[in-house]
Amino acid sequence: MKNKALLTTVALGAAYLMRNEKARNKLKNQVKEFASSISLK
Asked: 0.70 exceeded by the pTM?
């Protein structure tokens, strides 16, 4: 049951990001910064 709730949350989040370009770009930048901070260590 927990897995289903998680999948629903992810699906809703993805649908939201598809519609909202500003949120999508913000998330992309956060992921980039996160990835670069990992690779620097």
From this structure: no
